[in-house]
Write a structure and sequence with these properties.
The protein is of the alpha/beta class. The protein has a 5-stranded parallel sheet, sandwiched between helices. It has a 5-stranded mixed sheet with strand order 8-9-12-10-11, sandwiched between helices. A 5-stranded parallel sheet has the order 14-13-20-21-22, sandwiched between helices. α12 runs parallel beside α13 (about 345-350) and α17 runs parallel beside α18 (about 470-480).
Length: about 500
Amino acid sequence: MTQGMVYLVGAGPGASDLVTVRGKELIQQCDVLVYDYLVYDELLTWTRRDCEKTYVGKKSGYHSKPQVEIEKLLIEEAKAGKMVVRLKGGDPFIFGRGGEEADALLSAGIAFEIVPGVSASMGTAASMGIPLTHRKDSSSVVLVTGHEDPEKSETAIDWKKYAKLDATLCIYMGLTKLDSIVEQLIDAGMSKDTPAAVVQWATLPTQESCIGKLGTILNEVKEAGIKPPAMIIIGEVVKDAPKHSWFEQKPLFGKRIAITRTRQQTSELMHRLLQLGAEVRELPLIRVRSAVDEDVKKEIFGELGTYEWIVFSSPNGVRFFFEAFLSEFKDLRSMGFMRIAAVGPATAREIEKFHLQVELVPEKHTAADLAQALIDTEAIEHAKVLVVKGNLGSDDLIKPLEEKWAIVDRFEVYKTEATDLSENRAAQKFRELGAHAITFTSGSTVRSFVKQAKALQLAEGAQTPKTISIGPRTSKVMSESHVPLTKEAKTSSLDGLVEAIMEELGAK
């Protein structure tokens, strides 16, 4: 058996888009993922379905696995021939015990690679607009742990010597001993007026921060309710943080939004909301799978060159159609000279990935408007039209075409099914905390939401979300299902949905 390899990978300070390209590649490829407490949930979704995921996190007062057992696990999995990623918050060699794990692997004869990550101090400083070094204020940076051993009741760090350095202090894991640290720094001569900042969950939408002075920072932390994990930064460079602030100024910062699309479809919406500062929770209320009848496929593909129009009513239809098409044909020219229509820009973009030109997209992105746009071409009467759809597609597209004497063939290529969120981690968080808004992008997500009402029932004190619909058809199902509607997007698209969220949550 070929021996495996271990990769000690830095997960960065929190935000998933701050993971290195190399780090993400390894997470996507590994057989085993061994991860820490400070690793953001989204990173865990990057793995292969068959990847073994083992949590070995440590936080104050609780260790899921002793360090020696973690090292033993890495060695055993590598000896079994597996590709192992040891994923650590920040950088693995900055207060991450990466050096100890590298020593253990070396002693066991296990090959390893070290993949650095954006450190917590660098990420925190960037999110707060704090320059760790500045020609006028600080020419050096000190990284120091405030809690070098969880079993110790007191820190052994000599804070007095750090008080005499003309440097920026970045203190990891020091919040629970902040009172003692502040007292020792002041006793050693550091001015009470030295600027200081404390930041919890830096770079994430849940970031909490306070900025003050060394002599007052304890009270400010208490008033802000900041708890571990948090980074402490002390030095003159902190004074410009309010002026340089950008992260907490994002329009949706501090807003929690639940999105109900399928997991495959959430990425674009999630990315856009994250860029606007929102905390996004995925509630995949439906799943979509390929469902192509082989006899129908054979019949449709046998006449493919005879269609004048092919009409796609969703991005899912595009993906599953071409999956079926490319399993039969090796050349896109086998589609013939048919014209292509799409219900909206997202569907059109999916088609254009195959280097095909979309000739018709209606101004309003609904099935009824697509039908009318086709009729308005005055080339529909007796035209042969192929409509690619899923099992829940309505007749809003097909019926008007048939009434104008079009010859319409239906090709179902996918099936939409409700999921079970009773054991889902995101659903648990939704129950506990609620959200400021929840989006619905199809009637099927609404029906699944109603069906799973018990699994999604909010706990006492949780934030009741505003409900935002992507368009009229979804709003209609909400009304029929007695789900209150707060706002409907002006256009049935992701652009319209994001605009509606911004308007409803008061973002500028």
